[in-house]
Each structure stands twice: as C-alpha cells, then as structure tokens.
C-alpha cells in the first residue's frame, strides 16, 4: 500500500486505484469515498479502510482475470479481445443506424465485455507499463482539446 500520512494522500491513492481498474470503478462508483471518509471523526482511518477495500477489489479482479487466462490461455484470450472489440464496433454501428433502448443496451453490454477482456489483456501485455503510458495519452488528449497539436 502507498504510504498515507494525510487525507490528501489517501484521496490521491484512492483515485489512482480507481483509475486502474474498470471493475473497481464500477463496484465503487456508488460511493464517494472521500465524502464518506470526511464524515467520520477519524477521516484518515476511514480513508485508509476504503483504500484497503479498493486494493482488495483490484486483487480479486486480477485473480479472476488470471483464472480466465490460466483456463483458456493467452492466445485464446487475445483472440477473444479481438472478438469482443469487433462486437462492440458492430453494436456501435447498429446504434448509429437505429438509436433506441435495445441498441443502447447492446452497446452497454459490449462495453462491459470489452472492459473485462481489457483487464486480461492488461495482464498479458503489462498492466504497470500500460498504466505508465496513460498519463501521456491523457496529456495528448488535453493538448488536442486545447488545439495544441
């Protein structure tokens, strides 16, 4: 666990952890951990407990992803990644032709499938290395949005 000495440190660690895993974002999206932490007299203790819960959730996700990789193999899961991305593309095209609840639900389901397979692909291709690339990608997006290509 990251060394936490203040509520600000805890907030940064929680947000960093939430960004690393789609399932963690989903499972913890119904709470605002820092609001919860600040509502306690011992805000730092509460924040640390939330951080531990998030870290446990990420470990659980990784265990599930690793179990899938062990069962079906790396090559099969890379192919599954291609298939899931193709299904998302197909559902987006369908949604673009006919916007309704059915096509919206299909797109949402395919996004969830892609996020799950991305968790496995991150393990295959280097979760930490990918996490290290993300700030550069976000910075590039910021520059593009600001018109500074």
Could you explain how this protein is built, in words?
- It is globular and about 50 Å long.
- It is mainly α.
- The N and C termini lie far apart (37 Å).
- The longest helix is centred in the middle third of the chain and has 30 residues.
- Helix 1 packs parallel to helix 4.
- The chain folds into two domains: 72 residues, no CATH class; 77 residues, no CATH class.
- 84% of the residues lie in helices and 0% in strands.
Look at the structure and give the mean pLDDT. Answer: 83
Low-confidence stretches: none
> Structural class given helices, strands, pairing?
mainly alpha
> Per the principal axes of the C-alpha atoms, what is the gross shape?
globular
Order of helices and strands: HHHHHHH
- How helix-rich are the residues, as a percent range? over 70%
Number of strands: 0
Tally the helices: what do you get?
7
Domain module count: 2
Oligomer state of the chains in this structure: single chain
* Gyration radius from CA atoms, angstroms: 18 Å
What percent of residues are in strands? under 5%
User: How is the main sheet built?
Assistant: none
User: How far is the N terminus from the C terminus?
Assistant: 37 Å
